[in-house]
Write a structure and sequence with these properties.
8-stranded mixed β-sheet; globular; 5-stranded antiparallel β-sheet; 9 helices; single chain
């Protein structure tokens, strides 16, 4: 395990094996790009400039987008430099003045979100939801095992962890007439007002750095040339509004009001020890989704807490579709990628009752005003330490 001259606890999750990127401010200063190391954050641009890195100018931006657009060679160069700067005492004089305590800074949305897509890629989650809505005959949608199902969300309502969650308003049908699926029965009463079924969805988000051209799909083998890293994501959901509006075009107001992400983007390069083989697929998938022999699945462990109490621990390794397949499907029709695109895994759920990724599956009720939801996650590191993905938190407040 490589050591650092920056002091931090061995179990901090933010050691040299991690080095996630974020954007922060100090009092009276402009936004700056930083990298987390232990309990500190390193302001990267001045150190990169002092050591003549080609990416130094891009790192002076108030968001990660210009750096993300530079691509894998620049990402790798900076990562190697960061490890050297933070492990070799010879660099201490030039680096130490640009370290700041994370407790003294404010973290912001780390990148400007271009487009946002959310997938639906956990078979366990999909079947659990089907059992809730159609207990007499739970089943997957006809296309579910043929392609990663998803929907286009609203980039403008992606917010950083810590942003309050205002209970959304919309139209929904009252029970008991409407039944558990909320999709309507004759004689139902339509209500306009704040959701009564505010839910969470524990997910992982993937951040695109290098764009692609319209008409040019991104193959499975090329996905890491485009995707820089990942973050944690909570796709807040108003289940009653969602149920009423979903047929026939899918989620709209029940999803678009807010999506929260963690302030740290963990580079894919930090996850060398977390890649695993995907699950077996039956039926066989189309050629552009065929990942036989690849290791694009990830071993991540998520934890969901409500008001400080652990309610579930979803394993990301149980996901049916991988991030590589999701990107391949997103672009197979010729749709282009933009720097700052964010696409989410979909709710992460495992086979056990305490591994589900949303309250609808848990069956214990929905969120109340004042509830604080925190999603955290870890991954194994190549140096046998543990990588922290940080956390994404939101507090529910009542509608105005």
């Amino acid at each position: 395990m490589t050591s650092s001259w920056v002091p931090f606890a061995p179990d901090s999750g933010f050691g040299l094996a991690n080095l996630p990127y974020g954007v922060f401010t100090r009092r009276g200063r402009d936004r700056a790009i930083g990298v987390a190391i232990g309990d500190d954050v390193l302001e990267v641009a001045p150190v990169a400039r002092a050591h003549g890195l080609a990416c130094a100018d891009a790192l002076r931006a108030p968001v990660l987008n210009p750096f993300l657009a530079l691509g894998p060679a620049a990402w790798s160069e900076l990562r190697s430099a960061l490890v050297a700067w933070l492990s070799d005492e010879d660099f201490r004089l030039t680096v130490d003045p640009h370290l700041h305590k994370r407790s003294d800074v404010t973290l912001h949305l780390p990148f400007e979100v271009a487009d946002y897509v959310d997938f639906y890629s956990s078979e366990h989650h999909a079947l659990n939801i089907s059992r809730v809505l159609r207990p007499e005959a739970p089943t997957l949608a006809p296309a579910w095992k043929h392609l990663p199902i998803g929907y286009h969300g609203r980039a403008g309502t992606v917010v950083v962890s810590g942003t309050d969650v205002v209970r959304p308003r919309g139209q929904w049908r009252r029970e008991p007439a409407s039944g558990p699926d909320g999709q309507g029965r004759e004689g139902d009463v339509i209500t306009v007002g704040p959701t009564q079924r505010l839910d969470i969805e524990a997910e992982v988000g993937f951040v695109v750095g290098v764009p692609s051209r319209i008409g040019e799909p991104v193959a499975l083998a090329d996905w890491r040339d485009h995707v820089f890293g990942l973050c944690l994501l909570n796709d807040w959901s108003a289940r009653d509004i969602q149920a009423f509006e979903t047929i026939p075009l899918g989620p709209f107001l029940g999803k678009s009001f807010l999506t929260s992400i963690s302030p740290w983007v963990v580079p894919l390069a930090a996850l060398d020890a977390a890649w695993i083989a995907p699950p077996p697929r039956d039926p066989a998938v189309a050629d552009y989704l065929d990942d036989a022999g690849r290791t694009d699945a990830l071993s991540l462990q998520l934890t969901v807490r409500i008001n400080g109490e652990v309610v579930t621990r979803p394993p990301f390794s149980a996901m049916y579709w991988t991030a590589a397949q999701q990107l391949a499907h997103l672009t197979v029709n010729g749709a282009s990628l933009r720097t700052g695109d964010l696409y989410a895994s979909g709710t992460v759920s495992g086979p056990a009752a305490d591994q589900v990724g949303c309250l609808m599956e848990l069956g214990t009720g929905f969120l109340n005003d004042g509830d604080v939801v925190t999603i955290s996650a870890t991954a194994p590191a190549a140096d046998l330490s543990t990588i922290s993905l940080g956390e994404v938190t939101g507090t529910v407040i009542s509608s105005v």
